[in-house]
Specification:
With about 475 residues, this protein is α/β, with parallel strands linked by helices. It folds into two domains: about 180 residues, no CATH class; about 270 residues, no CATH class. Helices cover about 40% and strands about 10% of the residues. The strands form three sheets. Strands 6-3-2-7-8-1-9 form a seven-stranded mixed sheet, sandwiched between helices. It has a two-stranded antiparallel sheet with strand order 4-5. It is globular.
């Protein structure tokens, strides 16, 4: 009598959930570290060493989808060992709470400071800070005056209520906890219990009904020297200093989401023509759009610029093959697979011994172009094929449909002029970035990718070399 093959359905279902390309990595055990010389965030953590005597501010850029948010979550956990850390995502706030992501492109510098101040107030509350009435009233008065329409009845601002409308991750005290999805795995592996983790961060939820201030709708184009703007900055700095004096630790602000800015005029308004962010009396890490920084970075003196490059999977001298000694994606896959295996083993559910063989993993790593989100998306698409066929492992037959699906996304409506620019890069032994708006557009589309070896060089996304840029 033949032995029945094990059913790996549950394994592949969990595999699809844990390999979610849209979810940042929040669990420390799932975080795969980059080589130190390619890790901009590790460099920032070293720059923010506890014994540093001066405040430092960083702008962090990088290709969209290459893991900035995951890196910042890990960075926050490291910094929380010696500092108060407040992490807020302005994009999530505008999208999930305000309900108008387009407001990002109309954001005034003082509005950004108001969001930061409210986040710091919420964070301090979570840390048990007893805010004084003068501290609270100073922020409320400044916000009311800045949002006034000029009438004798300015809007009423209740900072306690307003702060409930912004989500923050906060750390810096012993014994902090993360609850729910932030501290556990995904899918059916998620537990509702509160779980102590090594991150020492607390993630709070936002109540959208509590946020009552408009963002990106102001007609006020106030300069930094406007007394009302100065009053807001002073009130927010007072909150920062109060936290520092109470908890005896310096504060680090991590502001994510500004890398989604597309309007270079807005980038200039926030970082070049205004220095409000740089005048906050704390260390800060702020994400910024990569392409705009190419123009604006030389004009910004109050921030240090760091770029989180793609994983350099492509060999510069032989771009048709995987660059040797790349272990990042192997480590990323191993960590996620081990999480699934450990959980399902405890339930007595069958798991395959080698679900993602090295040959398939390496091919997907190369064809991802070193963009972390593309690698995770390719692996997930391939796992769906394995689930459909009841297979024990992802085979070449499973990855080809996944590759084709993502390749067609990158090829969709690509035009002859764009192809000509990409071919010019392929034919250039120096792999330099062509001039002109078309090359910048290709970078924005991730059809052209930057690689951070000894010096930055460029190459088309490897998926395109399988189709529209196929040699010959």
């Amino acid at each position: 009598m033949s032995r029945q093959s094990p059913d790996f359905t549950r394994f592949w279902e969990e595999f699809e959930v844990v390999f979610d390309p849209e979810k940042p990595v929040e669990q420390p055990r799932l975080f795969a570290e980059r080589e130190r010389k390619y890790s901009a965030v590790a460099s920032i953590v070293r720059g923010l060493r506890p014994e540093a005597k001066t405040r430092s501010k960083y702008l962090l850029t990088g290709t969209q989808g290459n893991g900035k948010t995951s890196e910042l979550i890990h960075c926050a956990a490291e910094l929380a060992k010696t500092r108060i850390v407040v992490r807020v995502d302005i994009w999530d706030h505008l999208t999930l709470t305000v309900g108008e992501p387009a407001a990002l492109e109309r954001l005034e510098p003082w509005e950004l400071v108001s969001v930061v101040g409210t986040a710091i107030f919420r964070a301090g509350t979570e840390l048990g800070q007893n805010w004084t009435k003068p501290e609270t009233k100073a922020v409320e008065k400044a916000l009311a005056e800045l949002h006034s329409d000029g009438s004798q009845n300015p809007p009423k601002v209740d900072l306690v209520t307003l702060a409930r409308g912004i989500a923050v991750a906060v750390g810096g005290i012993a014994g902090a906890f993360i609850g729910g999805p932030s501290g556990t795995a995904l899918g059916s592996l998620v537990g509702e219990q509160t779980v102590k983790t090594a991150t020492s961060l607390v993630t709070t939820a936002a109540d959208a009904t509590s946020w009552t201030l408009p963002i990106g709708q102001s007609r006020r184009r106030s300069s930094d020297q406007d007394p009302k703007v100065q009053a807001l900055l002073s009130a927010v700095n007072r909150l920062i200093m109060s936290l520092h004096e109470t908890l005896k630790r310096p504060l680090v602000l991590i502001l994510d989401g500004l890398d989604r800015l597309r309007d270079e005029e807005r980038v200039s308004a926030l970082f070049v023509r205004s220095d409000l962010l740089s005048r906050l009396i704390c260390d800060a890490i702020v994400t910024a759009p990569m392409l705009a920084m190419r123009v604006e970075a030389p004009l910004i003196s109050n921030f240090k610029h760091k770029d989180l490059g793609n994983i350099p999977v492509v060999d510069r001298d032989a771009p048709e093959r995987l660059r040797p000694h790349i272990t990042f994606f192997t480590d990323l896959a191993r960590r996620r697979i081990n999480l699934i295996r450990e959980t399902l083993d405890a339930e007595g559910i069958a798991c395959p011994d080698d679900p993602l063989p090295k040959a398939q993993l390496d091919r997907l790593a190369y064809l991802s172009g070193g963009v972390v989100r593309d690698f995770v998306r390719l692996v997930r698409l391939a796992s769906s094929e394995a689930l459909d066929t009841g297979a024990e492992q992802i085979s070449k037959e499973h990855i080809e449909p996944a590759i084709r699906e993502l390749r067609l996304r990158y090829e969709w409506m690509i035009n002859a002029d764009e192809i000509a620019v990409l071919r010019r890069v392929m034919d250039d032994p120096s792999r330099r970035l062509p001039g002109g708006e078309l090359a910048r557009s290709l970078l924005r589309q991730k059809r052209l990718l930057p690689y951070p070896n000894d010096s930055t060089w460029y190459y088309p996304h490897p998926l395109l070399t399988l189709g529209v840029l196929r040699p010959g």
